[in-house]
Amino acid sequence: MIVKEVTGILEELAPLAHAEDFDNVGLLVGDGNQEVSGILVTLDTLENVVDEAIAHNCNLIVSFHPIIFSGLKKLSGDTYVQRVVIKAIQHKIAIYSMHTALDNSVDGVNAKICEILGIMEPKILIPQKNTIKKLTTYAPLEAVEDLKNALYNAGAGTIGNYSNCSFTTKGIGSYKANENATPTKGDIGKTHFEEEMQINITFTSSVEKKVMNALFKNHPYEEVAYEVLTLENTNQDIGMGMIGSLNKPMKEIDFLNLVKERMHAKGIRHSALLDKNIEKVAVLGGSGAFAIKAAKAAGADLFITADVKYHQFFEAEDSMVIADIGHFETEQFTKNLLVDYLTKKIPNFAVRLSESKTNPIKYL
To answer: Is the dihedral angle over the CA atoms 273, 104, 326, 23 positive or is it negative?
Structure first.
């Protein structure tokens, strides 16, 4: 396999189009056409991780966090970021980052937290906006089914648990071809009227290129009439954080102790306990204080995240408990998720879970 074949498989799980605008995801270092000798999966790409990749003949590092986040102006080895990039290039090691693309996946970071903590039937907490688009086009009657099937195969027309979804309306289309045209139907210089179907079909932004390629490749007309609109509809399969319920309600302190144990937290900073049972739990891996309001609005009894500032704990306002368990701690199992995913997708291929320690925070 080559690098871009592996990254294509990863993008089925977490399309890069779903990453946040501020982020830097995708292939950050290396050649997408390079043959892959082995894959090392890590949370962070540090120098010790690159050394581990070299030792185990892995020339593709799949990392959750991007080693290059803001622009690099030089490669002199002055910083750990520069040293990592230099060493990777010297040893022809590609580095691919997923970060918020995986954060926003329904099967990503937060789903893994829910799995470990036993949070049942999790749903997206903050659906990402502007991810659903609608294509409207027009085709002669005899071409409609073939065109729709091509659009379905490209990923259009899938809504939740349903596929091959579209809406058609019959009408009369008209056009007049000039002397430079080669019309499929009708004559040069004469207005032609054709019984057509208007086809309406939705798709996610991540497959837009495939859908448009399918439209132009399979539409019978020389000039394709079409419109693409971005919808206000929310997509519950794309977005930040998750919320679900425990199988059985638990006392606050008991659940916090369970979280500490299962997430290997060295300590938990939390807002005031409210002396009530925990049943509904929201989670957001990494720096998730921005979702406090959403967790409260969703009725969470407790919200698990990281990097909460002093004054942000006040935002609990005695309506839920905010628990900061640590940035690394919320995301540490992401690499396990990715190893499991890749192993299922490409069995009998060398996929290795990094054993390097990358948590920069130490505790007394």
So the answer is: negative
